Every structure is written in structure tokens, then in C-alpha cells.
Amino acid sequence: MESFSRLVLALLASAPLSVSAAEPTSPVAADVPVSFAYGVEPSVKMRVLGAASKLLGNQHKEVMRAEGLVLQTVLLDIPDGICFVEVGLTLPSPANKMERLAEYSAWAASKKARYSEGGEACEVSFQTALSYLINDNFLGAESIRTTKSRTRDPKKPIFRDAPRQPDTVTHYSFGLSEAGERRVAGSLGDRWTVPLDHRKFALFQLMRNGKTVEGYDYCLLLAGLTATAPDGVNPRLPSSYEAAVAPACTIALQDEVLYKKVRTSYERDLVEFMKFNVEYGQTYPSIADIKNAVKAVDRARAASLRN
Fold first, then answer.
1. What is the pTM (predicted TM-score) of this model?
2. Do 213 and 109 meet the contact criterion of CB atoms below 8 Å apart?
3. Whole-angstrom Cα distance, residue 223 to residue 121?
4. Which of 24, 84, 158, 237 holds its CA 20 to 30 A away from the CA of 279?
5. Which of these, 8, 12, 7, lies nearest to 208 by C-alpha position?
6. Which domain holds residue 112?
């Protein structure tokens, strides 16, 4: 399992995936308290819920309901590639807000070409990831205590009162090397650091690598815009994201996602960000002001290239 960490730093051929959220999905009010972070095909959802119902014992379900916890499921069905699933324990989000990232999680991936039925690879990935989580005693007293502390919405959120720093990106990075973390601000550049105040806006990036259930090497990178979280709690999952998969984790994959995609695509995600990701108790500039700042950066760069 992996637990949350926060990093603030100044300025990896892949299968791309770009997703824009419509609404954060609610926990399924049925046999199993599962929530899907992003939209999932109904047939795939039914497979996942069926697997959860079989794997989770009655005691697991009773404890989760008693503690008000849900099984957060990040499912990425990459076209012509893999189905990646990460599951973890979290508190359900308030209405119209993305959930905070699970404090503890486990993940798995399956190669879709090895399965004939639609959704089967996702079901296998989910079963494998959830089995890891169950074997690691994810509902132990300490896990529950930490999860509830880190995934709650504070009644009185505290944000760090510090001057804004130039060329700085707040980012929540999971699974990246130190070298990958150091490249963040440089990859995003002034098109991110000038319009987006690092005290309010943050980059969320999740890198997972290993072997699929069938034994194939893979590396997945997901990244998107989220809000800088209050002290003491995890960030919200991005409402929209860019993702890519390659056989190995490389600088090229990170550049594919951050420099070629997130650096320019975050503008179109601002409406969803303002609806699903903002933190209570924090103030944000208007979308128009952010877009005007982006245009100013683009004009300055164009002028410098002409000179």
C-alpha cells in the first residue's frame, strides 16, 4: 500500500488518454460501499461491483458502513491497451466535490487483448488490487484512524499563509523518482506558474509501474489540475486528467503528459475545477482572469520569438 505525501518544488511510444469529468460519481448504495472516481461503462461497473461483493466479507462491509468509509476506485480503461485499477479507503466526498485521494491504496493492471469479453480485464485488475488491499489488513484500527483524518473535509481549513514564490508549482506526486519530481516546474513552465498561484492550484500526478497480471511491463502516468489542499488532509482527485501508458517509465512519458498535454489542456478544465475541486475557505481568481493571464504569457513568448 502507499500512503500520501506532499511535495512543493520550484521550477515519462505511449497510449494517451484524456478524460473530462461530468459529475463526481457517488458511492453505490447497494451491497458494497464502492465509489468510482471517474465515469465507468455500466457493464464494467457491474463486473466490478460483483467482484467487490464476492471478495469483501460481511465484516468488511459492516465496518466500512459503521465508519462511513467507501472503497475509492480509480479505473482507467486505456483503449487498445490495459485496464488499470487502483483501490483505496476514503471518506465519501461532499455533494459535487471530488473525493480526496485514498490514504492507503493498492493497484493492478491487465492487458485487454488477452480477454475476449468486454470489461473482463478491468474485473481482473480490480479483483487483484482489492485482494492486495484485503491481505494488507486495510480495515485495521490504525488504517481507519489515519484514513478518516487524511480524507475528511476540515470544518476550519487551514491554508499556509506565505508569500507567493515565482516559478513554483505545488504538486502532489506519487510513484515518481526524485528526478521526475524535479522536472515538474520546468515541464509546465510559465504557462502554468504565472496564471496559477501555487498556494491555491496544484498539479496531481500519479505514476504506477510494474507487470500486468499477465506478466507484461507497463508504466502509467496520470496528471491533472487540482486544488492545493488545506494542511493535514489529502488533495482531491483531479476532476479531469491526462494519462498515458508505455512499457517503461521514462522522461519521454512524463513530457508526453505534462509538457504536451497538461500544460495547455488545463485551461479547458477550469470550469470543472471550479465546480468539483475548489476548497472551502479558499478564494480563487475568476476563470476569465486566469485565461487572460495565459494569453499574456503566450503573447510575451510569441514576441520574444519574433525578436
1. 0.89
2. yes
3. 23
4. 84
5. 12
6. 25-150
